[in-house]
Amino acid sequence: MTRISLNQEKIVLATIDLASKIGLASVSFPRLAEYFSIKAPSLYNHFKNMEEVRVATAVHLQRILNHQLTQSMIAKNPVDALRAYAETYKSFAEEYAPVYELINMIRQSKNEELINLSNENIRLLRRSLENFNLESEEILHKSRMFRSELHGFITLSQLGYFQKDEATKEESFEYMVEQFLIPLESK
Q: Which of 44, 76, 111, 178 is the most buried (most CB within 10 A)?
């Protein structure tokens, strides 16, 4: 049996891959061990339990999301930056649909790195909103509203909603984003 060089990053990437094949709820130490063709106790050299694997995967995903959001918003006017934020967030959620729920485990994980990464994601959004001469309380509420709209749309979409022929899912998403932006454009 060939000895593999295992590390936390390989386990995180395997978690994402396995989740796409068998579902996140089915990813376990035995399934990961099977994936690597090793014995499950070998995984304990890298993580204490599956909760740690999920948190490490969430950190990995949040880094990717933050990088993608930042890149998509660079050198754009505030309205276009918010459009880019929305589209990038949706694209990320679609690409990582099997593990998307992990980026929402931030508060319950109490992992400082994950919280900091999440806060950076929020700061990106708030910095764009600051360009509209809004009061700080209004920035807070608009930020929460926009993130809630995005997450709600993505969650419902992943649950199989938005299948009617009257409008495509993409048309509804674009409409939702534009309805958020119209009042801002007049500021």
A: 111
Q: Cα–Cα distance between 24 and 99 in angstroms, integer?
A: 6
The per-residue pLDDT for range 17-49, each reduced to its tens digit, is: 999 999 999 999 999 999 999 999 999 999 999
Q: Is the dihedral of CA 14, 15, 16, 21 positive or negative?
A: positive
pLDDT confidence of residue 3: 62
CA-atom Rg of the chain in angstroms: 19
